C-alpha cells in the first residue's frame, strides 16, 4: 500500500461546531417554540440538497425556520442570524495543525472532500486562524460540484486534478456512508470521531495525531526521517 494523498472530511474531522445544536434549541425554546427533532430525516434530506447546491443557503435557512414552526417575522430574522453565527463558530480538534503540517513535510498531498454550503473562501479563513490555510493541494466542494458524498464522483474530483489514483489515497471521515463511498472507489479509509452508526473502516484513530501511527503513514515518516 503506497499512500501519497490524504483526504479529509472537514466538519467533525478537522473541527466541530460544539454549540450549534444547543444554540438553535435555546433560541427556539426562548421564543416559545418546540425543540427540533434530534434526528429528523426531512431536515437531513433538505440539508443535503443545500450542500449539493440545489437550494441556496439563504433559502435553506428560511425553510429551516418554517420547518421548526417559526412564523413570526422577527423570530425568523433572529433565528437565521443564530444559524449563520453558529455556522462559523468552529473549534478545531487538538493537534490538527501540528499533525497536518507534519504530514505535509513528509510529502503527502493533502485535500478536503466536504459536503458544505460554506464557501471555500470562508473555510480558509477559519483554517487561517490555526495556520492551515495554505497546505491544501486539492479541495472538492459539494456545493460547487453539485454532488455530495457518498457519490463516487466527489472523491474522484479531489484526486483527478492532482493525477493521483484511488489506491494511493486515504480518506479520513466520521460517517459510515461517506467512508463506504471512499472505499467504493478504492481508497483506504480511516475512521475518526465516528457517528454512532459508524463501525467499519480500514483503520480507526482515537486522537487526530494517531494518524501518524498508521502503517501506511508511519512508514513514510520513518523513510523521510520526519
What does this structure look like?
There is one protein chain. With 226 residues, this protein is an alpha/beta fold. It folds into two domains: 5-16 and 91-224, HAD superfamily/HAD-like (Rossmann fold, 3-Layer(aba) Sandwich); 20-87. It is 43% helix and 14% strand. It has helices spanning 20-30, 41-51, 57-67, 73-87, 96-105, 120-128, 142-145, 152-159, 176-184, 215-224, and strands at 5-8, 15-16, 91-92, 109-114, 138-141, 169-173, 188-192, 203-205. Helix 9 (176-184) links the parallel strand 6 (169-173) and strand 7. Helix 1 packs antiparallel against helix 4, helix 2 (41-51) runs antiparallel to helix 3 (57-67) and helix 3 (57-67) crosses helix 4. The radius of gyration is 18 Å and the shape is elongated.
Provide a short characterization of the protein structure.
The chain is an alpha/beta fold and 226 residues long. The chain contains ten helices and eight strands.
Amino acid at each position: 500500500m503506497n499512500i501519497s494523498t490524504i483526504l479529509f472530511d472537514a466538519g467533525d474531522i478537522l473541527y466541530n461546531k460544539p454549540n450549534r445544536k444547543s444554540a438553535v434549541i435555546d433560541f427556539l425554546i426562548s421564543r416559545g417554540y418546540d425543540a427540533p427533532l434530534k434526528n429528523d430525516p426531512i431536515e437531513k434530506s433538505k440539508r443535503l440538497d443545500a450542500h449539493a447546491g440545489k437550494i441556496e443557503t439563504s433559502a435553506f435557512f428560511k425553510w429551516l425556520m418554517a420547518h421548526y414552526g417559526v412564523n413570526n417575522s422577527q423570530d425568523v430574522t433572529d433565528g437565521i442570524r443564530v444559524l449563520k453565527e453558529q455556522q462559523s463558530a468552529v473549534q478545531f480538534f487538538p493537534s490538527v495543525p501540528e499533525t497536518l503540517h507534519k504530514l505535509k513535510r513528509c510529502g503527502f498531498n493533502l485535500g478536503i472532500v466536504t459536503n458544505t454550503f460554506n464557501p471555500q473562501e470562508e473555510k480558509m479563513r477559519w483554517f487561517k486562524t490555526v495556520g492551515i490555510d495554505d497546505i491544501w493541494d486539492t479541495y472538492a466542494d459539494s456545493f460547487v460540484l453539485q454532488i455530495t458524498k457518498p457519490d463516487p464522483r466527489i472523491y474522484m474530483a479531489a484526486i483527478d486534478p492532482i493525477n493521483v489514483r484511488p489506491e494511493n489515497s486515504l480518506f479520513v471521515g466520521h460517517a459510515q456512508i461517506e467512508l463506504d463511498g471512499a472505499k467504493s472507489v478504492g481508497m483506504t479509509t480511516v475512521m475518526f470521531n465516528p457517528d454512532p452508526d459508524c463501525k467499519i473502516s480500514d483503520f480507526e484513530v482515537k486522537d487526530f495525531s494517531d494518524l501518524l501511527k498508521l502503517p501506511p503513514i508511519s512508514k513514510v515518516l520513518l523513510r523521510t526521517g520526519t
